[in-house]
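Note to self: keep these together.
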Amino acid sequence: MISLIACLSKNRAIGLNNQLLYHIKADMARFRQLTIGHTILMGRRTYDSLPHGALPGRRNIVLSRLALTLPDCEVYSSLEEALKHCATDESIYIIGGAELYEQTIGMAQRLYLTVVDDFPACADAFFPPFEADFKLISISQYKKSEDSCYAFAFLDYIRK
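Structure:
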């Protein structure tokens, strides 16, 4: 099953200059809880943005047009090639970036989104439109706190 997992603003902004817009502890904890023990698939620039490289406790797959060897990662030149190396019943989490979300939104069965109550002034990466094809099944809302300077919500969707 393919799932997309992302943290985005109300206008679907996800990044600026290859960095996440938001660093919310609860979002990071949820990301870890959902993806640990599973396959995560990312673009090379997303991999480059990870401060310590491959994420531990997960199968890390990186898509890159460049012939690379990355520690603790499998690298493939296309999405199709990467998916050929995954079992049909494997839980695969697409973790970014924007181009990969755009490529995979049509094949995803689930979305795990953290939506931040914000409209950032600057962003150069956005999550694709999805509302027409997905149904909201769960929402958990959180107020602004000392751990997060923004209110946010965890929203889970399934394909209609």
